[in-house]
Amino acid sequence: MPSVCFYFEVHQPYRLRPYSFFDMGEKHDYQYDALNGDIMRKIAQKCYLPMNAQLLDMIERREGAFRISFSLTGTVIDQFEQYAPEVLESFQGLARTGCVEFLDETDNHSLACLHRDGEDEFRRQVERHRDRMRDLFGQYPRAFRNTELIYSNSVAQTVRSMGYDVILAEGADKILDWRSPYYVYQPQGCPGMKLLLKSYSLSDDIAFRFCNRDWPAYPLYAETYASWLRDIRGRGDVINLFMDYETFGEHQWAETGIFDFMRALPDEILREPGFDFLTVSEAADRYGAVGELDVPEFISWADNERDLSAWTDNNMQKDAFLALYDCLPEVRRLNDPGINADWELLQSSDHFYYMSTKYASDGDVHKYFSPYKSPYEAYTNYMNILADFRIRVRSMLGR
Amino acid sequence: MRVLMLGWEFPPHISGGLGTACYGITQGLRAKGTDLVFILPSMKADKADPDTCLRSASGVPISRALRKAVEKVRRERAQDDFSRMLMRPVSSHLNPYGSYDFGRAGIDPDVLNENDQEIEEISHFRGGYSEDLMDEVERFSTAASAVVLEEHMRKKADVIHAHDWMTYPAAIMASRLSGLPFVAHLHATEVDRCGDHGWDRIYNIEREGLQAAAHVIAVSNRTKQVAIEHYGVDPAKISVVYNGAFLHDKIPTFTVPDLVKDEKRILFMGRVTYQKGPKHFIEAARHVLKEMPDVRFIMAGNGDLLPRMIRRVSELRMGSRFHFPGFMRGSDVQHMYSIATLYVMPSVSEPFGIAPLEALQCGTPILLSKQSGCAEVLPGALTVDYWDEYLMADRILSVLRYPAMAQESLARCLESLKTLTWDRAAEGILDAYARI
User: Fold this and answer.
1) Of A121, A148, A170, A250, which is the active-site residue?
2) Which pTM value belongs to this model?
């Protein structure tokens, strides 16, 4: 009977420092250390530490009945090590319960899968992430989630060829059409692989609407929410609740009651016979695919469009993206550790997200996350840094 | 000669290009023994300079009598559109008796009667170019008139000299109330700034001011032509007086990091607005990059067109060669000029243009649009029509390919620069006064 899969994405970008034209050729430190440290320590206090402690308690109390999945980007892990090592330890504590599955993704939260020559780069990033999961949590992930849940047939096929047998995607209306997100599917052309789709409506109830006073369901109680899940009984196998982990305490402040809500939710759900919690791979093992799903075009979990428009919509984003990957052959040829590190940094999808010029409600979301005053500033600053990066690469190659 | 000047900018209180020019003009005139008072809307208290001719119109008490007089002038002007022509004041230095005939414009003599100084309000200005600029311009005409009258009373003045449209209404009012003639100095016009898409209200103020002025000083022949063609000013009452250059004793040396010391940099620096022609610079850059992909372009400055320019550069996929460092201040300005291989000023319409003079002093060759006033006094400069983007690209490529040619042009420009002094400008201004 329906299993509930909680999957949390944990990520913080390395924000780039204000980089002046005069810095080009002279300064090669691109990270905004002060800001990154401040933000990381703040979110650690508001979200990561309290929520990890609460989840650990919830797991231990239910002796295996409450199970969850996580994916941590390499970028956030590096920042834990740099600014808040205690957070990493608390994640390791969660891993030791045996009730937490860690997924793989691109180590640096990149968009490498979108570039025509990016497949090698993509594989390299995923492999690096795989090594981290092994070293930090002793896990060998079988499940994969791509940056921002970017998905298409080709992504699934690449990931399948790397040995993964579970992949996550957005349960977007345009790919589901008449189908239900509450079943397991098989990616097109990937026999033996399972595709789990995010129930975006139920996920967004927690991630976005929970604190919205204009929402008819406000204030949302665990009991009410559990009753919505119960309604799915008989018309589905899995309820995939995928969201940013920063939902808890950062996007939704503690004052909204989000922690209390989550603490109460497992019992409300488990009270109903037949309901249980599974990690994503456990759900994929238990339930068979009801059909093959064809997704020729890229989808994602971002913005209302659920496509790539958050990162590659306008000309600034396209120019920056193409200019970045123009460096790929030279960076590979050079293979210098310092250059490689900056290369990873510059590929983070966040930099492109800040350049979005979308209006209305999505624009607000972009603005909320952006360290820049405008998308134009995001673009010009990024291009200055990229120019310096290129100058260094070329000079090291002796050109 | 005693001159009462009305201006909107003056360094260090508000310093744009206009303020810089006003500063040069006052220095030049005072060096020639001219007694000069410069009246501007407001001054920063913390930047007071003891040896200054500056007076702020903020905090000036406006008496009821003055208020009434001002209203009367406004009423008259509204009733009779031609009043300014009928009422052209007679130059007071023709008055051999030293008594000022304030009654000539039909003004209540009580304006200056010390017994009727009942204060109606204390004027206050924010200065600069804020949202309520029009309102400030209007109110400045009353407050500045009060200062003009007070200064004139204190010591007889000969002429009112007003810089650009913000001060023309004040100059008209003060001229009417004091009987002093007024000279309109034309640094820039709405036609330069916005082409045919200017704001009527500003254009009308300019036109009215230029028509009412006893004499007009234009900063170039180009500007004189604009005054004649677009504002119907009688050519006989226009003098051309070129701006001077502020010659720096020493330009600091800026070191270029080793990694980028061989880079070629083509610089645009100025407001990113229609007038400055930024779009033509971008299109020229596009042609240049096709030929020489390693050139770096810089568009320094801010303005209403900046987002559009950034979008255009990204659309042309030139972002990795074309940079937008934003508004430059302090030593960054000279730093930028100094490291540039070429400074380009592709202005659609530039009355004079002080920036190229700065670039030259930093040792940087210049490429000017033919629509720039300063090109008239820099015969050695490379020029191109602002709209001829191919030729602009061709000129840029020539500078990159033939450094000797660029150096020759630079040397000739530097020669011309020596003759561009504020002393010479002051002489021209005094000549203009004499022609009233």
Assistant:
1) A148
2) 0.88
